[in-house]
Amino acid sequence: xxxxxxxxxxxxxxxxxxSAPVPPPPPRKRAWGESAEPTPVPSIxxxxxxxxxxxxxxxxxxxxxxxxxxxxxxxLPPTLPYPARPHPAPPAPPAHSPAPPPPRRPAAPPVAxxxxPPVAxxxxPPxxxRTPVPVQRxxxxxxxxxxxxxxxxxxxxxxxxxxxxxxxxxxxxxxRKRRRWPWVLLLTLACCCGCPAYYGVPVATQYPARATLPxxxxxLRLRDDNGSKETAxxxxxxxxxxxxxxxxxxxxxxxxxxxxxxxVFGGTGFRFTPESDAQDEITRLTEQxxxxxxxxxxxxxxxxxxxCAVGRADGDDVVVCTSVDHGSIxxxxxxxxxxxxxxALLGTLREQIVTAxxx
Length: 359
Fold this sequence. Notes:
Blueprint: H1 181-206, E1 209-211, E2 216-217, E3 220-222, H2 226-242, E4 248-255, E5 261-268, H3 274-289, E6 295-297, E7 305-313, E8 316-324, E9 328-335, H4 339-353, E10 354-356
Antiparallel strand pairs: 1-10, 2-3, 3-4, 4-5, 5-9, 6-7, 7-8, 8-9
C-alpha cells in the first residue's frame, strides 16, 4: 500500500459521446494516369528578405556626440509699416537640452473706432394725380405678300466632253421619265374591284332560280301517262338523294311525234363550284347508263359548265348531258340524237324550265 500522495493517477473513464467510432479512411486509389511512385514533397523556398526581422547595424554604438547645435541665423528685418518693439534674440540652447517653447505674443489693445452720425435722406413729395391721356391706336400694317412659288427647274442633262464624237449611226434620243404611280393605282383598283365583280356577277345573275316544267318545248310534248309520271317521281327522288342541299327538284318525260324521247331532271340551289359539280353528276350516272368518256361542251355563258357522254339504256344508244351553273343543275337523257344536237336541245330545255329570280 502506497500513501495517497504517491499513488499513480488513475486514467479517467472515457466519456460517452453518443456516436459510434469513425473507422480510418481506406487507402486512396490511384487516379487514371497517376504514377505509382510517391510524389516528392516540394522544398520550402527560402524566406524572402522583406519578411525577415530587421537588424539595427548601429546597435551598441555610442551615437550621443552626433547631435549638433543648430546654426544661429541673423534676425529678419521688420516688414511692418508701423514701428515694432525689438525682441531680443533667443539664447542658444544647450547641446543636450530641449529647445524652449516660443514666447507668446501679447494681445493687441482694443481700438475704438469713431461712430459716424446718421445721414438724413430727403423725402420725395407725394405723387400728383394726372388724368390719363387717351392714346389713339392705329391698325398694324398688313403683312407683306408671300413671294410667288417658284417651280423647280429641271437640271439640264450633262453636256458631252469637248471633242466627243458619237459613233457612226448613233442618233441621240431624249429619254422621258415614266411615271409609274398611275399604273400601280389602276392595277390596285383592278385587283380590288375587278376580281369581286368578275366572280360576283355570274352568281348574282344565276342565283336564286326557280324551275317549272312547261307542257311544250319546241316539238317536244310533256307526257302525262302513269308510266311517265312514275318515272318522273323516281328520278326526282334520286335527285333529292344525290343533291340533298337543293332547294327544289323537278323531273319530266318529253317525247316527239316521230318517237324521240327526252327525260329531263334536276334541281335548284346555290352551287359554289359548278364545274366540279357537272363532272360529279356525269360520274354518278356512269354506272346507270354505262357512259363513256365525258366531253366538255362550251356554253358561251360565264359560270355555266356542261358535259355530255354517250351510253346505253334499255338496249338503245343514249346521250346524257348535264348543265350546271351557280343556281341550278339540269340533266337530260336523249334518244336518237347526236351529241351536238343533244347539247343544243339541252340548252333550249334549260331556258324554258329554269328561270333566274332577279326580284
